[in-house]
Amino acid sequence: MAASPGAPSPVAQQYTKWVYPKPIMDLSAPELQGIRDGGDPENNFYTYWPNQAYRDDLDILIAGCGSNAAARYAFNHPAARVVGIDISPASLAHEAYLKQKHALDNLTLHRLTLEEAQSLERPFDFIEVSGVVHHLPDPVAGLKALGSVLRPNGTIAIMVYGRYGRTGVYMLQELFRLLALEQTDQDLAVVKQAIAAVPKHHVIREYMSRARDLSYDAGLVDTFLHSQDRPFTVAECLDLVRQAGLSFMGWLDNIFYYPEGQIPPDRPLNARINALPEERIWSSMELFNSTLGQHYFCACRSTRPASTYKITFAGPEFMSYIPVLRSQRVASKAGVPEGCITIKRAPWPDYVLNPVISALFLQIDGHKSIADCFAGAKLALQYQRQREDVCRDAFRYLWRLGYIFLRIPA
């Protein structure tokens, strides 16, 4: 396990004492089977490479791998070659334990900062940097360094903290700075007392109801006592990617960034938001939702042709896209009109589709184009005359929900 020289930073010292996330002792445990990291290509391949057939023999870099992520990737992707880098020797030691326990010969570990990624002297098809960029002294420099080791058609999956969804966190962080609390056991006890005592109406209560890192000490330190924590809005995510010299590809879960999944289609607000330019739609929905504590998106090199990843409904070319199911049909509740089906993608809500979208959804098999799905649906003559408009409305709706992928034919 290679290491870079130099005195540890305060962030490195934190993650050495407070190993994060909570270490997994056995990657083969039954409760972990089928669970994947947020950016895992197995779940998101057609977001990253909609013009390619699925493959698993990737060169993968987990930048800021923490105590588990690199080993988990190597375990779940035995055909891939996985490299994990981190600044915490304690985290890397646990990764090394998992590597030995599970005989992960496809895993290599290095003690490096993101900014030192080029010293690996190898390119990568896929890079995941989750929960790291927002802790860097210079997020742009860190992301730019990762871009320098990305292959021409590669993808970087990025997760950063969302500003509005973590409002309560930053209020308490400021409180704890006023109290001069440090990352000690004694001061952590004060943090625990404070979050137990905050009023029921405090905005942190809603955040705590959905946060998964507050049940153990390292997670509490990471959330409330971090020395370097900078959140991002939608607009700031886009600026980060541009300043790093990369191209923004899209969000991993469109449902959060479009009104289709959150505002009924017959409401004037839906139409007003959808009339905005794309980036303003995203920002509007971030403000409307208010709970986005994370933004998960992907980026690529600026030289990668947009035609290899950009999903657009602006012209007739979208009719050649191949829809791939990301959800399934489930039993409808009583009262659902005839001809309407219900679809589900866990953990998101059920959606009842109107008869036209229902007929088109039932044609999706991962091989037929949108045009073929329309032909197979055998819709009434009135819809045949509006073929492209009908398909655009239906498949854009399903894609914006995040309940289908759209593949671009080679």
Tally the beta strands: 13
For the largest beta-sheet, the strand count, sense and barrel status come to: 8 strands, mixed
Uncertain residue ranges? 1-5
pLDDT averaged over residues: 96
Helix content: 25-40%
From the 3D structure, determine the CATH topology of the largest domain: Rossmann fold
Q: How many domain units?
A: 3
Following the backbone from N to C, one meets helices and strands in this order, namely EHHEHEHEEHEHHHHHEHHEEEEEHHHHE
Number of helices: 16
Judged by helices, strands and strand pairing, the structural class is alpha/beta
- What is the CATH C level class of the largest domain, in words? Alpha Beta
What does the overall shape look like?
Answer: globular
Whole-angstrom Rg:
23 Å
**How much of the sequence is in beta strands?**
15-25%
How are the strands ordered across the major sheet?
1-4-3-2-5-6-8-7
CATH superfamily of the largest domain: Vaccinia Virus protein VP39
What is the CA–CA distance across the termini?
40 Å
Per CATH, the architecture of the largest domain is 3-Layer(aba) Sandwich
